[in-house]
Amino acid sequence: MKKILVIGSGPIIIGQAAEFDYAGSQACKSLREEGYEVVLINSNPATIMTDEETADAVYIEPLTPAFCERVIARERPDGLLPTLGGQTGLNLASQLADLGILEKYGVKLLGTQLDAIKKAEDRELFRSLMRQIKEPVPESWIVESDADLEAILDVVPYPCIIRPAYTLGGTGGGIANNREELWETGRKGLKLSMRSQLMVERSLLGWKEVEYEVMRDGKGNCITVCNMENLDPMGVHTGDSIVVAPSQTLSDIEYHMLRTASLKIIQALGIEGGCNVQLAVNPDSFDYYVIEVNPRVSRSSALASKATGYPIARVAAKIAVGKTLDEIENAVTKTTKACFEPALDYCVVKIPRWPFDKFTTGDRFLSTQMKATGEVMAIDRSFEAALMKAVRGLEVKAKDLRHPAIEALDDESLRSALRRPTDERLWVLAEALRRGWSHTEVHRLSRVDKWFLEKISHLVVEGSFESTPGRTVYKMVDTCAGEFESHTPYFYSTQGQSHDA
Amino acid sequence: MAGKVTCLSRLTAHLALSDGTVFEGRRLGAEGTAVAEVVFNTGMTGYQEVLSDPSYAGQAVVFTYPLIGNYGINDDDFESDRLQPSAIIVKEACETPSNWRSKSSLDAFLNERGLIGIRDIDTRALTKHIREAGVVMGAVSTEGAGSALDAARSAVSYNDIDFVYKVTTKAPYAWGFEGREAIGEPAGDMKLRMVAIDCGLKFNILRRFAALGVRTIVLPATTSAEEVLGWKPDGVLFSPGPGDPARLGNVVETAQQLLGRLPVFGICLGNQVLCQAVGGKTFKLKFGHRGANHPVKDLEDGSVTITSQNHGYAVDPDTLRGTGATVTQVNLNDGTVEGIRIKTAGATSIQYHPEAAPGPWDSRKYFLQFVAEMERART
Question: N or C: which end of chain B has fewer CB within 10 A?
Fold first, then answer.
């Protein structure tokens, strides 16, 4: 194995943004570090990965099987790494395999193999695997035609969730409150799905949504890079959710119950590299359901990577060429290995950035189809401080949790805004708390966990949250909560006593 | 006439280290002064388990994760009957926890149980201080910086105190399917009987064995080998526990006499007891391993497992040469001994916590393995 072809992520579209450029660039660098010659194909020249320094040869061509075959014929790579370019790269690789092109030119698929990817992405195969390993999945129905859809209209419990298979950012999905909505959204979803397949499932609206970023090497060693909890409960796409890392409201037993489930899944799938597991957690019991698995570096991996300092794409690329987690250096500490789980000593908040300032007539209600076009991430030692940094980073009109239009709403409109989230959900929550509504009432309407409501009310009601006496200092993101000396130029500001910088 | 108003949440507290460093923060939990060895734990969840883990006796635990108490305190996640550390040190303590099992806030619970804590200090600065200087004696006090400093400087060293005899059970008890039970109760349909030498047992070890059909007889750390054998057990467990393992002469002697006579398993301090029983020696680590993310490499099959750890001492592998004990597992970060096997005696032990609580569940196979070992020995 000398030469490796990497498929880039293509155009930046809603549901697939610059995070895959970040992952792809990291991967190319990582492979070259190992002494491989890297050939890159990407249709988007406005990326970092298509810079001359990133790969040995760069092809800016359409990401179609025909063009890809021409690159393969010309470059004759020994291997192909498809799991770092998001869904586009993955879909293209599976087309190349199906068409026999990989076999024809003797190109070995690196990292997670196609059958594992299929098992994770094909709803029915995935569900049967989950049943085999006794992991719970919500009750659901697979639909592959209009006739299938018609047959279940009177069977499913409403509201229900519609999830088309093999699409980006949940394109074509949604929530149906009645048979008419299911018929309409379902037919649209069938058209948009690459395999004309969609899943209709029991609604878990209001449950906690938690994700785990996990990695596995070819020998079966597994680790969790981090977990994340959505401030927005189930019903809002993760890409449209305010997300905090690590989870805040899970006890140790709950954290490790879900971690164990995630590792069991990555092991059963046989992933070689990174993988993202999404879970719905009942806020009033130990019940949970496995919602979805992304068998590749995903949008959440980019967030997890930046949130923890753990270079997921870099490590995934090395796993793809046969290295094991205990052989790969932890590039942050340089004194430990990649086979460990990052310990955070800060809190990370991600807020999506929506384009409704440019698309003023767009439908702002958030649902299972992603609408955000970007996101900001902030780090601090308290949730309140991280949240406020993120709000200021959004570059929207609001610099704090006040919003004139929302302050002008009457109580009834505010109540209905709490029930149906839009991109302005955070300001709606803040306004309700500012009006002195009880946490129980705001929770009942919004289903947002009271832990988050309490924190937001510290900001809007008390107006201050900083309790640690000190000054502004810079602390290091070191993957190990200060346990080991680290070498990385990655810092965040906070109130404290001493600098790491 | 109005009564005196005190704003408890604003009361000042201090942490002083014996090297003269003083941190000022706010009071958490009870009033007073507590002297302890200051150690840090990097786990992001599990404070309730840590608070009730006997291996933290005599220590003030710094939680490196800054938001502690988020999911409150519940009725179930206790690892012993008491609060075990002498004090706790946090950045932020959550006043209004949110979790379906939560019964009280951390502050209210510590007040009720009389445990002293301090919050709102720069725990990362403190952690780095310990990483560089090593674990150090210190004091947490609500009685002023001077009191804290005096207490820290005059503290008896952690290394010189026999903690095991303080935390071990005073009287034997049994643990079955339903939890703790009177020693005389019939074993029901439990298939095996194990004796645990309690140097600081955690309940989850007993729960895990019970789930596999093992009834455990828990005996004080001072129990002799003859007494242990008198219970006719299928195997013996040497438990985790606090303090310097080199101070455990009589427990080591018991282990020496039991090795080879029935299956023996050691966890954490139990590993150090077994190593000493064959002639090995232990040494104190600079700042220990405390957290839920420690990678351990199995030298026999090459696999790596993420483990839950809580120990301040380690076994010196050089002293195991020629003793019959083989090092089977090492820590991937610092290469220290994480597991041994004494083949001739049918004994194994690990330095980390397969019972988790808190931490990852990836090492539960050791319970299955020891149960299988006991079943084999029985037939």
Answer: N
Range(s) of the domain holding residue B346: 164-378
Q: Give the pLDDT means over successive 10-residue stretches in chain A (501 positions).
A: 92 75 90 96 88 91 95 97 83 93 96 91 90 93 93 92 77 88 92 85 91 97 97 92 98 98 97 95 96 88 93 95 94 87 97 90 88 93 96 89 95 97 96 97 97 95 62 93 89 92 82
Closest Cα in chain A to B73: A251
Q: Do A340 and B297 touch (CB under 8 A)?
A: no
Count of structural domains within chain B: 2
In this prediction, residue A23 carries a pLDDT of 86
Cβ atoms of A340 and B309 closer than 8 Å = no
Q: Looking at the structure, tell me whether residues B208 and B336 fall in a common domain.
A: yes
User: Are A383 and B124 within 8 A, CB to CB?
Assistant: no
Q: Of B112, B143, B159, which closes a domain? A: B159
CATH number at residue B363: 3.40.50.880
As a three-state string, the secondary structure of B232-297 is CCCEEEECCCCCCHHHCHHHHHHHHHHECCECEEEECHHHHHHHHHCCCCEEEEEEEEEEEEEEEE
Q: What percent of chain B has pLDDT over 90?
A: 93
pLDDT (tens digit per residue) in A213-225: 999 999 999 999 9
Within this chain, do residues B149 and B193 fall inside the same structural domain, yes or no? no
Same domain (yes/no): B123, B191: no
Query: Shortest Cα distance from A454 to chain B (angstroms)?
Result: 7
Residues 6+ apart with CB under 8 A from B293: A340, A341, A342, A343, A480, B42, B43, B306
pTM to 2 decimal places = 0.93
**Are residues B116 and B48 both part of a single domain?**
yes
Q: Do A326 and B42 touch (CB under 8 A)?
A: no
Q: Do you know the residue count of chain B?
A: 379
Both B178 and B240 in a single domain?
yes
Token readout for A248 is: 């805040």
Q: Among A223, A224, A253, which would you mutate to test the B interface (most chain B Cβ atoms within 10 Å of its Cβ)?
A: A253
Q: What is the rounded average pLDDT of the residues B262-276?
A: 98
Quote the CA–CA distance of A271 and A152 in Å, as a whole number: 34
* Domains delineated in chain A: 3-110 (3.40.50.20), 139-202 (3.30.1490.20), 208-349 (3.30.470.20), 397-462 (1.10.1030.10)
Q: Which of A326, A454, A496 sits opposite B124 (nearest CB)?
A: A496
Q: Rounded distance, CA A413 to CA A391, Å?
A: 24
Instruction: Pick the last residue of a domain from B159, B192, B222.
Output: B159
**Cβ contact, residue pair B40, A482, below 8 Å:** yes
